[in-house]
Specification:
alpha+beta; 4 domains; Phosphorylase Kinase, domain 1
């Protein structure tokens, strides 16, 4: 525990120095971080030849993140998909971040693979390419060939990844604790929740077996699809730190020239890709959450291949219905229906002014439904929807933002391949299909059955609960516990005011005592005098000066804080 505290303290000092370098002095001087950096160590605020104050605050936040390293970059990249938690300008800056992590030594990678598999690497692979195909903050990928001749890719976790991420997560928790007030003033309402969610995500990403399970699930769901293929993970050769996957060749989906050389119609490829993705969302409720061009391949037969299942999103049945309802209501120009589906989609919502909420949604509908097909943009719509969610503090599932981000990416891919690609035209039939499913007899029957089970459970437990309440009432033992929140700052202010009032009263009391002491009739020789005043008067004046000095110091300290 002590060792971790010392390590965090040193790292926090580095974080503070970076914050000061980019002009976030207020983030340091107005929080508990100010204790870590003396005045004389504050730096001039320049980035290269440019003053950092010529940049926006959000640009400077991004620059701070870039300098703090991979874990912080990873956090920012995750948050770039959560427009409900951060202001949109900050989300836009975080979207610019790219992890640039050099690969680690291939000899170390071989050693990790042998250690994880429990046998020499030569017994498993006939070939193992020492030059990695790619490198990231958590691991890197090598191409290899199994003893039986099958081509594979091997994903190997960095040797110090878990320790570094664990240390940085501990640091993040400490930083948020020290700066939570400042972060809330900047519009980040729940920083502790953000760190906890990120920690869960990172711990899952550190376990490669979760990615292998996701790939197997996709392979089962799409076993009958001839237009979509998921590489097979070799579970017997995979562990939490090593993942061996079937190697699949193909070109990037945006490589239009190669598609034409294979006599494939790029427009048809784009339509196939969008249909596959919307099937994942609206039919199966589980989807690949990072479909950038490098993760979407096309084989010579025109089938789509998805790779890298490190980030997978999920929607429940009710969330699917609500999400589709948002788009359907928008198409029907029904702001009230759109608002209702937003509330159904939100995990918690406390919209104080529903009229204002519906009016803003109506404005959004008016702005988009009147546009020509060529003018409509999923990117612009996603930004507007995310702005509404943030302003009204709707806590919607994180998967919703992953979907919006993915649709924006897919729209960009589609416009490269398809001359008149329109994302909304692809979404519309899936929305209608979900509405029909939602009000089908089988689904209504399932809902009635669930409601009946809930009522039966309530009826079963209600007599017992009522009996306990009556018993406690008869004994006079019924207690009601109320928990108030948000009053800590008020109590702190009240405590300071009371302390200063007491000190002021003490100073006044000593001053009055000094004045009254001048009226005393002291027998000759029993009271010493100094400069014509009795000694007791000087003692009273000294006490007055002391308490006034205490009051002055407290006032100055508060102003500095």
């Amino acid at each position: 525990m002590f060792k971790n505290t010392i390590t965090n303290l040193g790292r926090i000092r580095q974080v503070v120095e970076v914050l000061l370098r980019y002009g976030f002095e207020d983030a340091v001087t107005t929080t508990a971080l100010r204790r870590l950096v003396p005045e004389r160590q504050r730096r001039s605020w320049h980035h290269g030849n440019q003053s950092v104050f010529e940049m926006s605050r959000w640009e400077r936040v991004r620059m701070v993140i870039e300098e703090l390293g991979p874990t912080f970059i990873k956090l920012a990249q995750v948050l770039s998909n959560r427009a409900d938690l951060l202001p949109q300008p900050l989300v836009d800056e975080f979207a610019k971040l790219q992890s640039s992590v050099p690969p680690f030594d291939s000899a170390v990678a071989r050693q990790i693979v042998a250690q994880e598999l429990g046998r020499p690497i030569e017994e498993v692979f006939s070939e193992f390419d020492d030059v990695p195909l790619g490198s990231a903050s958590i691991g890197q990928v090598h191409r290899a060939r199994l003893i039986d001749g099958a081509e594979v890719v091997v994903k190997v976790q960095r040797p110090d990844a878990r320790d570094k991420i664990t240390t940085d997560l501990s640091l993040l928790r400490e930083l948020v604790r020290l700066t939570s007030g400042y972060l809330r003033r900047q519009g980040i309402s729940n920083p502790q929740d953000i760190v906890e969610a990120f920690e869960r995500s990172m711990m899952q990403e550190l376990d490669y077996t979760s990615e292998a399970r996701a790939m197997e699930q996709f392979r089962k769901l799409y076993a009958e699809y001839h237009t979509f293929y998921v590489p097979e993970p070799h579970r017997s050769l995979s562990t939490a730190r090593v993942l061996v996957i079937e190697f699949v060749s193909g070109c990037k989906i945006t490589d239009k020239d190669q598609l034409l050389r294979w006599n494939l119609d790029p427009a048809a490829v784009a339509e196939t890709g969008m249909d596959i993705y919307l099937t994942q969302i609206f039919e199966f409720g589980i989807f690949h959450a990072d479909p950038h061009p490098g993760n979407v391949l096309v084989r010579p037969d025109g089938s789509i291949v998805l790779i890298d299942f490190g980030m997978v999103g999920r929607l429940t049945k009710q969330q699917k219905y609500a999400f589709a309802g948002v788009f359907i209501s928008m198409g029907q120009q029904d702001a009230r229906g759109m608002a209702l589906n937003f509330r159904r989609l939100a995990l918690t919502s406390d919209i104080r002014d529903m009229r204002s909420f519906e009016a803003e949604l109506q404005q959004l509908i008016d702005d988009f439904t009147g546009l020509d097909v060529k003018e409509m943009s999923m990117s612009a719509l996603a930004e507007r929807l995310q702005g509404v969610i943030y302003r009204y503090k709707l806590q919607v599932p994180g998967s919703v933002f992953l979907i919006l981000r993915a649709l924006v990416i897919l729209e960009g891919i589609g416009k490269v391949l398809h001359p008149v690609f329109n994302t909304f035209e692809f979404v519309r039939p899936y929305g209608r299909r979900l509405i029909m499913e939602q009000y089908s007899m089988s689904n209504i029957g399932a809902e009635l059955q669930y409601t009946g089970q809930q009522l039966l459970a309530l009826m079963y437990t209600l007599p017992t609960d009522l009996r306990q309440i009556v018993r406690k009432l008869s004994k006079g033992d019924l207690r009601v516990q109320a928990q108030l929140s948000g009053y800590a700052p008020l109590l702190s202010t009240a405590e300071r005011l009371v302390s200063r009032t007491i000190i002021t009263l003490l100073a006044v009391a000593f001053l009055l005592f000094s004045g009254l002491s001048l009226l005393g009739n002291y027998p000759a020789g029993q009271m010493p005098y100094f400069r014509g005043l009795p000694a007791v008067t000087w003692w009273g004046l000294g006490g007055t000066a002391f308490w006034l000095m205490v009051l002055f110091i407290l006032t100055i300290r508060k102003e500095k804080q």
